[in-house]
Amino acid sequence: MYERFVLSLYFLAGVSALFVGVAWRKRDSPGGTPMVLFHVALAVGALAYARDIASTALATQLLYRQIATVAQGVVAIAWLYAALQYAGFDRSLTRRVVGLLALDPLVLVVGFLLPGLTLFRTPAAGMTGSLLHAAETQPTPLFFAHMGTILVVALAGTLVLVQLFVRSRHLYRTQAAAVLVAALAPWTIALTQQYFLQVPEDATIFAWSISGVAMTAGLYTFKTLDPVPAAQSAIVETMGDGTVVVDVDGRISDVNPAARALLHDDALVGRDMSSVIEGWEGMRTDGNGHRDWEEISVTVDGEERYLEVETTSFTDRFDDEVGTLVVLRDITDRKRREQRLQQYKLIFDSVTEPVYVLDGDDRVVRYNDPFAELVGYDGDALVGEPISAVLGPEPTVTDGGFSDRTEATVRTASGTDVPCELDLAPVELDDGDAGRVGIIRDISRRKAIESELAQTTERLETLVEASPLAIIAHDTAGVVDVWNPAAASLFGWTAEEVRGETLPIIPEDGSEELLEQHERVQAGAHLTGWETELRCKDGRTIPARVSAAPIRDTDGDIVGSVSIIADITEQKARQRRLERQNERLDEFASLVSHDLRNPLQVAAGHIQLARTTDGDVTDHLDDAENALTRMEELIDDTLTLARQGRDIGETESVPTTRLAERAWANVATEAGRLTIADPPVVDCDPDRVVELLENLFSNAIRHGGGTESDPVAVTVGALSSGFYVADDGTGIPDGDIGKVFESGFTTAADGTGFGLDIVETIADAHGWSMSVTESESGGARFEFRV
């Protein structure tokens, strides 16, 4: 019994070696390389199993049994690997599964090399030969893990091959039978041995051999697998058109990558063809087994696409129809081009504007009646002519291309030039060549309006730039858009600094009032001659007169405002001067009515006495003359104030020494003595300052109580920011210090009371501050700070 079984194993090893050669020649085909490994492992396993049975030494038997066990695992895994490739499963999935399962033989090899790890516990000593095989061995956990792996592999491979059989049974019967044998052989023999033969040796190795031979023969001998997934033809796989294999039941057996991409569906296999293509039942092949191309529309990912479909039936070797080959060709782009052409043709029937079509050489293909009316050519006179025959020599024409929208001059048949606007778009012509369709518009009126607007705009820009008044425009948010040179000169900011920025001229203390006026203008009101104060770049504020109006867009909505601003600093200064002059005129009127009346009355009285007095009237005439002299002094001082007031001439830098010497020469008297102590240089109107000093010097001599023997000492000296004039006279009584600058106030019987008023007027005209204190020697001290 054992001898026949051992001979069968040797025979099996030889058959497996032969099939190694068959599989090796087809190793580049799907499943080829795994089948080489399968038959090699099967041959090794058969030899090892035969040596295991034939050996009598326990150590030798265990060695060969271990080799056979490892070979068994390799056989099972290679069988599953071949089945997966045979059925066309994804490569990455197949490699991951096989790599995981390959851990089983690897663990077995490592376990055999390490002490203590084995599949079976060692039987009792002295047991040899056939007795060893009949002994009751105790399997270890490693054995159960190994057998579990073999079972999982067998189940997985059987499911893959049965699925392939179901898919291909209608198309390739011979190959389907081989697939079924490969799937069921391991289970059939294993069950037969277990329940019917009940032989002591393991016959499953012959089951694996039968399965492997069936798979090898089905793949490489029958050569009937070309149209199905395991070994599709390279032509079908790589052709640009989609191909679908449909069985006699109308179910999809296979699709190529082009069909999957075309239909955007990777789960087509197994589906009914009528669920993919609507109306499939009416598209079956005719009696000759072929149906020519016809157009259909399908919905792919919510988008309508157009296909051309051709169907061809095919038969097996017994001439029985086993399925239909469906070829799909995407014609969506062509259909859409045809639709666009139809749309372009519709333009010529419905549009009222001039329309024309050009070929790739810019020659006229066709045009509509409005175009013919515009250019003055009837019928088809321009067909075949270059478009430059009616369009001016525009760069867009001579360069061989138009932009999406451009302007050109149309030259009519009568020689008139008409400015036009062109809209061009690419189009496919009836013959498939690329062309362009264009719409042309007469823009003569628009050009005339644009020309007028350009001239008006240029004038306005010139006016704004040349305006002596500041002109500022801003939007509703206060962002500056226009800032003319006058504004830059007035406020100190350049146009580049403020354009695009918020209006900077609003002072913090006047923002509420300015905001209120801004809101009035934004509401539609016009502002005229409104006076306010505005801020300059250097931080100072200036008085200004503002006139403002809203800016409206073409729809009448207010989008901003424009302001014209005038600097009224000089006007305000003149106004203040006029007010002061009016006040002074009032003072003059009071003087005329009071101070001049007294000497007039004195003179009139003495003249009357002279007339009525007998004898010498000299005393009366002398008194009348003195009164008239006083009147003359009053009139001179009054005229000085009235004529000159606070006006000064051109200023220059002059040493105070020179001014003081000129003034002292005009009032020189033995009753006074001048001292000049380090005086400064001042910017002034020299003549007016000399007049100021003359009045101060006269006042010091007149009121200081000086004599020729004891003259008044007058000193002109420097301050940190100006100069002073001091004397050592009797000084000014405390009660009179606040009155000394009032017009007409004097403490001398023969004084006019205008001297210090003139001094204050000249100081104010220069912008100097003036004060009066007591000098170090008890006299008067007048200080002037520039």
From TrEMBL:
Q: Which UniProt keywords apply?
A: Kinase, Membrane, Phosphoprotein, Transferase, Transmembrane, Transmembrane helix, Two-component regulatory system
| InterPro entries, alphabetized | HATPase_C_sf (IPR036890), HATPase_dom (IPR003594), His_kinase_dom (IPR005467), HisK_dim/P_dom (IPR003661), HisK_dim/P_sf (IPR036097), HisKA_7TM (IPR031621), PAC (IPR001610), PAS (IPR000014)
Q: What class of enzyme is it?
A: transferase
One of its Pfam families is PAS
UniProt name for this protein: histidine kinase
Q: Where is the Histidine kinase domain?
A: 591-786
List each copy of the PAC domain by range: 291-343, 404-455, 528-580
| Location of the PAS domain | 340-394, 456-525
Question: SUPFAM superfamilies given for it?
Answer: ATPase domain of HSP90 chaperone/DNA topoisomerase II/histidine kinase (SSF55874), Homodimeric domain of signal transducing histidine kinase (SSF47384), PYP-like sensor domain (PAS domain) (SSF55785)
EC number(s) on file: 2.7.13.3
Keyword Transmembrane helix in the entry? The reply is yes
- High-level lineage: Archaea, Methanobacteriati, Methanobacteriota, Stenosarchaea group, Halobacteria
Q: Where are the transmembrane segments?
A: 6-24, 31-50, 62-84, 96-120, 140-166, 178-197
List the Gene3D superfamilies.
1.10.287.130, Histidine kinase-like ATPase, C-terminal domain, PAS domain
Catalytic activity reads:
ATP + protein L-histidine = ADP + protein N-phospho-L-histidine
Specify the superkingdom. Archaea
> NCBIfam families, per this entry?
sensory_box
